[in-house]
Design a protein that fits this description.
This protein has 2 domains: about 30 residues; about 270 residues, no CATH class. Strand 2 and strand 3 form a beta hairpin. By secondary structure, the chain is mainly α. Helix 3 packs across helix 4, helix 4 packs across helix 8 and helix 7 packs across helix 8. About 45% of the residues lie in helices and about 5% in strands. The longest helix has about 35 residues.
Length: about 325
């Protein structure tokens, strides 16, 4: 054989193996981060919540306005900075939610109520901050009130049935638990177009393929902001915010407790900073009830007495 014959040698596989090992390590790191709650959300752990509009003083009965003792926020629907814009107010179609709140008033100033059963990672909640901020910018509703309702309805979208099906009452679903059955125009039908008024974030978790959807975080939170705005809520955490929360739940005794707890939580956040996993102070819930809830609750007591008296009178006439 000739000595000058060139015999080809196979290329080295070392580089390919190094790339494969690096990709495996990267994949393992991402998986560990997801399981630890560090990744898996559009927001980064270092993201900050939107700016708090103002520190809110604890309400007192003397701070309740005349409107708070009247028929609620709907009488003031024509007012507000957005009344003359394309974002018109909508008329409420009834209760949005159907489950009783967890509020339990307490005379103990140090007690915390309604603690979260599952710890929520900061990275998970950070994914909602851009949506809260956009809803506040578009509709002028204090994002703390919006976040408090988000907390109340689905524990910041961590409830097991948040993104599929309806709730136990078979009426409401999604992060903000919108009623889709109280038609012919349901509450969701009235406000589902709210997403068109804002700028959808480029990326966020649970974005649906079609819009609007009660299961899309942006669609649902924007719709909730429009509904709260329509019921009189604005930047202040006052009687207007209480009535908006009361309207959001529905008009009954549970609705009073719901509004008390939602507003107390938002006020507490304004005073001490936004806290994802903190409970709400029992004394603050009591203060909100004394200022805004008690006059409404008194109406139910009066109505109950009146119905009982009417029933007794009817029985007497039949004798």
């Amino acid at each position: 054989m000739r000595d000058d014959i060139h015999i080809p040698t196979p290329p080295s596989e070392r580089r390919a193996w190094l790339i494969a090992v690096a990709l495996c390590l990267l994949g393992a790191g991402v998986l560990a981060a997801v399981l630890a709650g560090v990744a898996g959300s559009s927001g980064a752990p270092g993201d900050s919540p939107p700016a708090v509009l103002a520190d809110v003083a604890t309400p007192t009965p003397a701070s309740a306005s005349v409107a708070a003792l009247g028929e609620g926020s709907r009488a003031r629907d024509a007012a507000g900075p957005y009344a003359a814009t394309h974002k018109t107010r909508v008329a409420s179609a009834g209760a949005v939610v159907a489950r009783p709140p967890s509020a339990r008033r307490s005379a103990s100033g140090g007690s915390l109520l309604d603690q979260l059963e599952v710890h929520i990672a900061a990275a998970w909640e950070a994914g909602f901050y851009p949506i809260y901020a956009e809803a506040q910018r578009v509709f002028g509703v204090n994002w703390l009130l919006l976040a408090s309702i988000h907390r109340q309805e689905s524990a910041f979208s961590t409830a097991p049935s948040t993104y599929h099906g309806l709730n136990f009452a078979d009426c409401c679903g999604g992060p903000m638990q919108f009623n889709v059955t109280n038609g012919p125009l349901s509450t969701w039908d009235l406000v589902k177009g709210a997403f068109r008024f804002g700028v959808r974030p480029a990326a966020y978790d649970h974005r649906t393929a079609r819009h609007p959807s009660i299961y899309d975080d942006y669609d649902a939170i924007m719709a909730a902001a429009w509904l709260l705005y329509s019921d009189g809520a604005g930047g202040a955490l006052d009687d207007s915010a209480w009535w908006a929360a009361y309207d959001y739940y529905g008009h009954d005794v549970y609705g009073v407790e719901y509004a008390d707890e939602v507003l107390a939580r938002a006020i507490g956040w304004s005073q001490h900073g936004f806290c994802i996993n903190c409970g709400v102070e029992g004394a603050l819930v009591q203060a909100v009830y004394d200022s805004y809830g008690a006059p409404v609750m008194a109406r139910y007591a009066t109505a109950t007495v009146a119905r009982a008296g009417h029933a007794r009178h009817a029985r007497h006439r039949r004798r």
